[in-house]
Amino acid sequence: MGKPRILILGGTTEARQLAESLAADRRYDAAISLAGRTADPRPQPLPTRIGGFGGAEGLAVFLELEKISLLVDATHPFAARISHNAAIAAAATGTPLFALRRAAWEVQPGDNWTRVASVAEAVSALGAAPRRVFLAIGRQEAFHFEKAPQHSYIVRSVDPVTPPLNLPNATAVLAHGPFAEADELELLRQQAIDVVVAKNSGGTATYGKIVAARMLGLEVVMVERHKPADVASVSTCDAALERIHQWLSPVKDRGV
Ligand SMILES: NC(=O)c1ccc[n+]([C@@H]2O[C@H](COP(=O)([O-])OP(=O)(O)OC[C@H]3O[C@@H](n4cnc5c(N)ncnc54)[C@H](OP(=O)(O)O)[C@@H]3O)[C@@H](O)[C@H]2O)c1
């Protein structure tokens, strides 16, 4: 009988951490899957496959063909489609699945959050009157704000927004985290920002802007997550490892 085969759906810091731990553990035969969004991804500590599976059906075929014993969904809290597909494919093939997902941020005293369900809703939440907006939601959904050209935007993303935003007052800031609280405070002050738009990603790397907004008494329009609610999840790499050990020893034999 071979070793249990684990597939990590990755694209996050947590997925990389888990991959590092599993690479050092000879009991398992683990691999990681990436969407292939990054042009020049850092090498991973595990065998890596890159690119979509072809929907839930394609993923189900992959799980069967590769005789995957356990699927770990460690994708980003805002990567909703792949998590949905993982839940369907795991159920269809009887593959155990759990999610490794950092906890969402919770409102703290002094926070002034307007919670919204989507980026499109965040646009409306800004209101009709012109404001100075710090847009820190990544580049993929920034285009929604073209519907609100009355505002001025500081748009921060790792890679440039393409095509460029059709907005009269938008300044691009290219940077990647982690972002220090003091730098975020400085940015918000310097740019005279009066509202921050953020996704509730959780974790520490991008939390500085939330703290800075609190310190300045600014509103944060917070886009909440939409991940499958019925998939068991853990929020740390250690908890994920514990779960893996629990589930796979003794090995659940699926013919591997
Ligand atoms: N959304 C964010 O804010 C964000 C931030 C940081 C990192 N990421 C990472 O970037 C990747 C793409 O994010 P997204 O929001 O575009 O995802 P998504 O909308 O949930 O997924 C779109 C499609 O990309 C493919 N895909 C996504 N993750 C994959 C993976 N780990 N391995 C293989 N295929 C994958 C799947 O294609 P098929 O249907 O063909 O299988 C999926 O249907 C994810 O891996 C995520 O962890 C996302």
Main attributes of the structure:
Rossmann fold, alpha/beta, 21% strand, six-stranded parallel β-sheet, 256 residues, 29% helix, binds NADP nicotinamide-adenine-dinucleotide phosphate, single chain
Molecular structure report:
The chain has 256 residues and is α/β, with parallel strands linked by helices. The protein has 2 domains: 5-102 and 227-248, 3-Layer(aba) Sandwich (Rossmann fold), CATH 3.40.50; 112-223, Rossmann fold (3-Layer(aba) Sandwich), CATH 3.40.50. It contains 7 helices and 12 strands. It binds NADP nicotinamide-adenine-dinucleotide phosphate (NAP).
Could you say what the CATH architecture of the largest domain is?
Answer: 3-Layer(aba) Sandwich
SSE-based structural type = alpha/beta
Oligomeric state of the chains present here: single chain
| CATH-defined fold name of the largest domain | Rossmann fold
What is the CATH H-level superfamily of the largest domain? NAD(P)-binding Rossmann-like Domain
User: Low-confidence parts, pLDDT < 50 over ≥5 residues?
Assistant: none
Q: Biggest β-sheet, characterized?
A: 6 strands, parallel
Strand content: 15-25%
Helix and strand element order: EHEEHEHEEHEEEHEHEEH
Q: Domains counted in the coordinates: how many?
A: 2
Count of alpha/pi helices: 7
Overall 3D form: elongated
Q: Got a strand count?
A: 12
Cofactors, ions, other ligands: NADP nicotinamide-adenine-dinucleotide phosphate
Mean pLDDT rating: 94
CATH class annotation of the largest domain: Alpha Beta
Lateral strand order in the biggest sheet: 3-2-1-4-5-12
Amount of helix? 25-40%
Distance N terminus to C terminus?
A: 6 Å
Report the radius of gyration as a whole number of Å: 20 Å
